[in-house]
Predict the structure.
Amino acid sequence: MNSQQLRALLHSMSLKEKVFQLVQIPGQYFRAGVTDTGTAAEDVLSEEELTLVGSTLGVFGAESTESIQRIHMTRHPHGIPLLFMHDVIHGLRTAFPMPLALGASFSPSLVERCSAAAAEESAASGLHVTFAPMLDLVRDARWGRVMESFGEDPFLNGKLGCASIKGFRGGNGDAPLPGRVASCVKHFAAYGAAEAGRDYSGANISRRQLQEAYLPAYRKGVEAGADLVMTSFNTVEGIPVTGNKEMIKSTLRDKWGFHGVLISDWNAIGEMVAHGVCADQRQAAKLAMDCGIDIDMCSLAYARHLEALVSDGEIREEQVDAAVLRVLELKNCLGLFNDPFRYASPERENRSILSETHRALAREAVSESAVLLKNAGEKPLLPLSPDVNAVWIGPFVESRELHSAWAVSADPSDTVSVREAAEDVARAEGRLFSYVEGCPMTCREDLGPLSEENNVLRFREDNPPLLSPEAVEEPLIREAASAAGRADVVIACLGEHRLMSGEGASRGDLSLPAPQLALLRELYRTNRNIVSVIFTGRPLDLRDVCALSRSVLLVWMPGTEGGSGVLDLLTGHAEPGGRLSMSMPYSVGQVPIYYNHPSTGRPKPADTKVPRYISSYIDIPNSPLFPFGYGLGYTSFTLSEQSIETNEASLQTDGTLKPVRVSVTVKNTGSRRGKSVLQLYVRRPSDGAAAPVMELKAFQKIAFDPGEKREISFLIGYDELSHFGTDGNPSVEKGEYRIAIGLDSEVGSWLSLTIT
Ligand code: BGC
């Protein structure tokens, strides 16, 4: 339809019909409504209202979406198709490594390819919109949703966010391509700054932090063509973002020019009553509409109150019209008025879901995102030498639950477990495979309320029973320790259960579940050659694991091809390509911890004993256990001859800056081909406030042959030197900038560039 036709359609609709375009309800009600002759949802909406609803979430599968759409089209008075939305966070059926793992890949092209593959499966399943990427900056590993973010760095988040949007949509054009889906950036804004890491609590951050650190990635996402933005549950400066006119209207709409659909998070409109900001749902509906929220996800405040608000003159009908038009435009740009079934088809599903190409990509992504934290000794244990007699121990050897709590459509029965992959390798090499369980994954208590009613799993009716409630099983541990004593090497596959992270899964303790730590300690008594493979949804306190293991490989929640990917890494068929995109804390007492923190007037000297009255702890170090950007490979790299083409550059009168070349010589000093990530950090002069001690401004992932030596350059221009001030405008300060290139955020020497 052209815009005239869309407007004509809008004007032919009654107020009620318009209001219901702005109402989103969960798929199961809708599905029940359809299959059970349209009455099962009557406690939520009347049958008539159900036929008018504009969008639904959580239903997927070509057959289901087609049948719902078919019935909907015949019932809707104007034949307006439904929008199907869903959380496709790291894949639909093929689960790729979780977003924080993909953050560690430092690879925009990998992120784009994974998003594209996820979009293809989704589009074939009848989905139109994915609620991804989540571009919330995360600095606090207690928050369960860190798994869904690309990490703690605004620049990296922005880069990977744009790549993800491009992958989901198939480019940055006006409309998502056929076979791709529309992308929804979330959760605007600062949801990741939940105080004390407790989900849904407020973001108590300064304006400066908001502008400099939290907003840039969402802004990049908008610039990259995100079709929708989702507002968050949390407050910023005490105001729920879903009712925050300044943030939504002035910043997102006016300043950033976002013209797409704005959707609230689940019941975020309704929750403004619990925040005490609105007296009732009616006021909440009014505030959200006044802010310009187009779609009300699941609170029904719009469904119940918008019509009356208009007839009572509290909301202008044009406000409703503007929101409806945006929704109709989204439907139109997805081509739904021409073909309401769009790309959905069982044949396409068969072709794309879990296709060989998607599985191969998922497997590649495991090695690109795994971080080798430790590989000690003159002869490191990894990669495993082919003739080593290894015993596989731990709850993650057999587990197929290798996807995050947010892979709501992934099915564990599709997953390759470590055991399967290791057995394949052993069979191919004509060797025996030896495995002992060792201990249960965790105790039921570790999951807290998640083991009871599980919000995160609301879309899955067929959840396997959670966990055995047993605590530490001593006989199991004893059996494992004795098997360890007979082996050359122990491969301990340990970690957090996938439900220990994700939405509503904040933790106050970041250590491994108790039974697993007990197991590791016992293994250490009988064999010191331990390789720990850690599965987790968040950075953990890995002090004990590192002390008890010679090698530690962090594989996150690696997804459907987790087992094969892990075996590729352990056997050396692939190189651990990940570098931490979130600092690994020394202990929970350090969080929030992030490398780009503001400076202090009393910094801790690097190499002296700490006197008192300096910014430090008396019982733990300031530095994390492993810093941002850190990760080892199976070869080693050295950096030398860092240089800058000039030490002085001038800002032109038109505000531009001629880019300056910064170079470093890189050498692969090991004996095998390997990868690394070169990271360029900048320390800018003050604009009157304390600047972050350093900020990532560029990176390059490199792959070098053994002995290969080359110069690598970066161009540093306005974007790299600018920062956002409290007014949200970018600016470059005059003064001295320090620049360093390193293999992680603990860089050595700094170059100087003065901007005049
Ligand atoms: C989450 C969102 C998600 C939505 C729909 C909410 O609880 O915060 O991230 O997209 O549910 O499932």
User: Anything to note?
Assistant: Residues 108-124 form the longest helix (17 residues).
